[in-house]
Amino acid sequence: MQSLEKTSRVLDLFTPERPEWSITEVARAIGIAKSSAFGLLNSLAEVGILQRSGRGRFRIGWRVASLARVLLDTEPVVRIASAHMDRLVRQYGETVHLATLQRGRVVYLDKREGTHAVRVAITNVGAELPPHGSGVGKVLLAHAPKHEVELVLERYGLPKLTERTITDRDTFLKELERVRALGYAYDLGETIDDLCCVAAPIFNHAGVNVAAISFSVPAYRFQRQQAAYRNVILETARRISVELLHEEEESRWRRHKSA
Q1: Is-contact 7 58, C-beta < 8 A?
Q2: Residue 20 maps to which CATH number?
Q3: Same-domain status, 79 and 58
Q4: Mind listing the pLDDT tens digit for each residue in 166-217?
């Protein structure tokens, strides 16, 4: 278990801002002996999780991309949501996101770029963002267990992303209560200035909030059609949830039949 924890801590170091690390840097960053870092990094390189980029330096390996493709291609919520996301872009021309919560961060599972000129560059598939500013993040935290929310707040806090970001703990917890009651969440320029979002939860057969889907719209367009965007994203999330339920029921029936 200690080895798995160390591996996780090493992999967390690799980010778009700093994609390459040396053995000495890793040892210093996670507080282990240089010899331990040497063994760990080389073991990860042997199985393709990391790759050597120079003498004593490492980057993320291509096997990670292969594993990510397998995950995205076989994850039911991604597959089912895909056609719905295409339809939303055709009808509204706005950017659509599908995201989940992973270790206290929003992870973007899929994205459909809108047909308008404005692009949302920081939310590509696989990107991670703090959850407290975004509509999808609020939705996912609102339906997460209370202890998980507390851990996220303790670990990451509520950093200021824009002038409109909620940075007060009590205010944010009240916002999550409001999101649970309403069934949707807004991001009104809280992650990116002049960009608004509305997000709704997607539930699996057990009633667990496994993902969230959202529109991302420039503020001037969002204000004109806020209710329409909200209603369609709520209905789309409901449809995806129903399809997930039906797929699980069919899967259980097939398993029972073959038993």
Answers
A1: no
A2: 1.10.10.10
A3: no
A4: 999 999 999 999 999 999 999 999 999 999 999 999 999 889 999 999 999 9
What pLDDT, on the 0 to 100 scale, is given for residue 100? 95
Please tell me the total count of domains within the chain.
2
Cβ–Cβ under 8 Å, residues 232 and 92: yes
Q: Strand order of the sheet with strand 195-203?
A: 128-129, 105-112, 95-102, 209-218, 195-203, 185-188
Where residue 240 falls among pLDDT bands split at 50, 70, 90? very high
Going by C-alpha positions, the residue among 139, 49, 147, 57 that lies closest to residue 101 is: 139
Distance (Å, rounded) from C-alpha 116 to C-alpha 114? 6
Within this chain, do residues 105 and 164 fall inside the same structural domain, yes or no?
yes
Of all residues in the chain, what percent carry a pLDDT higher than 90? 69
**Quick one: 55 and 116 in the same domain?**
no
Q: CA 23 to CA 35: how far, in whole Å?
A: 9
Residues 124, 30 share a domain = no
76-120 residue pLDDT tens: 999 999 999 999 999 999 999 999 998 889 999 999 999 886 677
- Least Cα distance to 152 among 160, 142, 161, 165 occurs for 142
Q: 160 near 195, Cβ under 8 Å?
A: no
Residue 170 has φ and ψ, to the nearest 5°, of -65, -40
Residue 143 forms part of a structural domain: yes
Q: How far is Cα 244 from Cα 246, in angstroms, rounded to an integer?
A: 6
- In-domain check, residue 259: no
| pLDDT attached to residue 259 | 60
Question: Do the Cβ atoms of 162 and 192 come closer than 8 Å?
Answer: yes
**Which domain does 25 fall in, by range?**
2-62
